[in-house]
Structure formats: C-alpha cells, structure tokens
C-alpha cells in the first residue's frame, strides 16, 4: 500500500521551493517549483530501474535490468511481468494488450501480450561493432542509442517502417571506452540526450530534422562546480526530465549518498542547485499531467510519485 515519508518530502519541498532572482525572469513559469508527494511504495532491494515511459491513462511503465516490467500509478504497482532470464529490455512502448520492447544484447524486437511469452517481431539493424545502449519509441519507430566501437562514435539512429538512418553522431573518441554514452528521455516532440559522465552535457535533438542543441553543460557551471568534489570519476547523471517549462537533472555519487538536483528554466539557464544527502533520483515525468516519478532509498528502496506546480511568490 502507498505510504508517506513526510520528513524527506518536506525537506525536498523546502530545498526546491525558492528559486534565485535570476530564475524569476523566465517567461513561461513563476519562480517557485512546488513538489508534493502523492504516494510511495517499496521496491525489491536489488531492482535496478533502467527506464520508464508514460502511459496514456496517466500511469507509467518501467523496466528493470533483471527483466522485470511493471506498471505503476498513485495507487501502487498494478501490474508486474517477468521476462525470460536471457532477455533484458532496453526500450519499451505500450501496444494494445501489452508491450513492445527491444532486447539489449541482440537488438531483437519482441511483443509481450497480457498472458503470453514474448513473440519475436524482428531485429533492428546493427552493423558490426555497433552495440545497443538505449532505445525510445517515438511516433512510428525506434530511436536507438548506439555505440559504434569501430568508428568510436555515439550514434542516434532512427529505425522506422521507411528504413534506418543516423539522426546524430558524436565526435570521434580517442578510445573505445571514451565513446560518450547518453540517456534518452522525451521532451515533447524532441529528445533529450544526457551524457552519463562529466561534464554531463544535455543535448536536445529533433528526430524529424536532426537538429541538435546543447542545452547545458552542468559541470562547467560555477554553481554546480561549487557543489561537486574536485574529482568527478564517481559521479553519474540520470536522465534529464522535462517539465512544461524547463527540466530537471539528477547527478549522483556512486560512492556515497550525495546527490545534486538541478533545475533549469525555459531558456536552459540554471535556476536552482539542490544538494541532497539521501539516495534519490528522478525516473520520469509527464509535463501535461504535472507528475514526476522518482526512486529513493530511505531505509528501503521505494518508488515515489510526486505532483508538482508552479507557485508565484508574493510581490
């Protein structure tokens, strides 16, 4: 059953509530972001959430590294499915009666019905040396995050009925381990690419035109650098989560409970840096419904559902 963790909820609200004066200049949003916890429910202790996608009924579907697929809404976990052990989902989209997903290791596409084993639909095209890192279903096809180990590049590939093409290619890396790796997350018709490691840059890609903008390079910002240690080897970025006006980014220290929650305004200016001393990370968001999904460990691992709104400060 959902339960509340009031002390952490209040701490998070207080840390995020008041943005600096520079953020008040945003054209489309008031100055304060107000978060209110709606529900929290426990997760298995070793369940690693790999990604989430919004559902049309207001819930979310999530997938985990161990092959678990589950649906959640404010009432709790409403569906849980376990894939065969040799399958690891990397992208997930709902279809009537079930889900469509890709297997990370092979690029094979499957459809999972309500009471069936996964059925093979085909395989996304991967050239020799190309490794699948992530995937998102957009419109009528997949957007694939690919590490091309032969060309030493990150590729964002579009695979749809009309064929496959490269939407974005990174610069050539010095070595294979230095090929950049990105999370993929939705932002309206665009896609946000968040670099997992420093400097944690966030790119916005238009899948239709291939246009790419660098929204932010957090580790280069003095306000973020002041809150980070000298070495960033143990720090990672989680996927950027879009709001209706701006976006949020979680930076996490793999060696401790330290986290940074960064809020950017509509112009991609840094509006707030919130240090957190608890394992916490945003998982997904739905701007139209003003909800956020987060994972945190406050004793046990739990999934937390937040509603958010913009509050104007008194004149």
Structure description:
With 315 residues, the protein is mainly beta. Helices cover 5% and strands 52% of the residues. The strands form 6 sheets. Strands 18, 19, 20, 21 and 22 form a 5-stranded antiparallel beta sheet that branches. Strands 1-25-24-23 form a 4-stranded antiparallel beta sheet, with helices on one face. The longest helix has 12 residues, at 6-17. The chain is globular. It starts with 5 loop residues before the first helix and ends with a strand. Residues 1-11 and 13-26 have low confidence and may be disordered.
Q: Structural class, please?
A: mainly beta
- Poorly predicted tracts of residues: 1-11, 13-26
Helix content: under 10%
Number of strands: 25
Beta-strand content: over 45%
Distance, first to last CA: 41 Å
Principal-axis shape:
globular
- Output mean pLDDT: 86
Number of helices: 2
Task: Please give a handful of descriptors for the protein shown.
disordered N terminus, mainly beta, 315 residues, single chain, 25 strands, five-stranded antiparallel β-sheet
What's a quick, concise take on this entry?
With 315 residues, the chain is mainly β. 5% of the residues lie in helices and 52% in strands.
Lay out the secondary structure:
Elements: H1 6-17, E1 32-42, E2 49-54, E3 60-64, E4 68-73, E5 76-82, E6 89-95, E7 98-103, E8 108-113, E9 119-123, E10 130-138, E11 141-148, E12 153-160, E13 163-169, E14 182-187, E15 190-195, E16 202-205, E17 212-216, H2 222-225, E18 235-237, E19 241-242, E20 247-253, E21 259-264, E22 270-276, E23 280-286, E24 291-298, E25 300-311
């Amino acid at each position: 059953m959902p339960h509340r963790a009031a002390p952490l909820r209040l701490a998070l609200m207080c840390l995020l509530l008041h943005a600096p004066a520079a953020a008040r200049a945003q054209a489309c949003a008031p100055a304060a972001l107000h978060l209110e916890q709606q529900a929290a429910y426990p997760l298995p202790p070793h369940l690693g959430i790999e990604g989430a996608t919004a559902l049309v009924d207001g819930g979310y579907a999530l997938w985990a590294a161990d092959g678990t697929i589950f649906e959640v809404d404010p009432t709790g976990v409403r569906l849980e499915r376990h894939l065969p052990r040799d399958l690891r989902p990397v992208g997930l989209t709902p279809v009537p009666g079930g889900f469509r997903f890709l297997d990370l290791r092979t690029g094979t596409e499957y459809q999972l019905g309500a009471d069936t084993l996964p059925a093979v639909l085909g395989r996304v095209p991967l050239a020799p040396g190309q490794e699948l890192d992530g995937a998102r279903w957009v419109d009528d096809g997949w957007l694939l995050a690919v590490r091309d180990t032969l060309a030493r590049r990150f590729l964002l590939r579009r695979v749809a009925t009309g064929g496959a093409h490269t939407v974005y290619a990174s610069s050539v890396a010095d070595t294979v381990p230095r090929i950049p790796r990105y999370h993929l997350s939705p932002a309206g018709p665009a896609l946000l690419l968040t670099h997992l490691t420093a400097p944690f840059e966030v790119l916005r890609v238009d899948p239709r035109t291939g246009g790419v903008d660098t929204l932010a390079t957090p580790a280069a910002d003095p306000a973020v650098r002041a809150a980070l240690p000298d070495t960033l080897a143990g720090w990672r970025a989680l996927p950027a989560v879009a709001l209706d006006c701006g976006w949020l980014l979680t930076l996490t220290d793999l060696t401790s409970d330290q986290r940074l929650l960064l809020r950017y305004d509509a112009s991609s200016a840094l509006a707030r840096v919130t240090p957190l001393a608890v394992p916490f990370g945003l998982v997904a968001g739905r701007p139209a419904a003003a909800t956020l999904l987060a994972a945190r460990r406050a004793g046990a691992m739990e999934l937390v559902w937040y509603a958010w709104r913009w509050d104007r400060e008194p004149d």
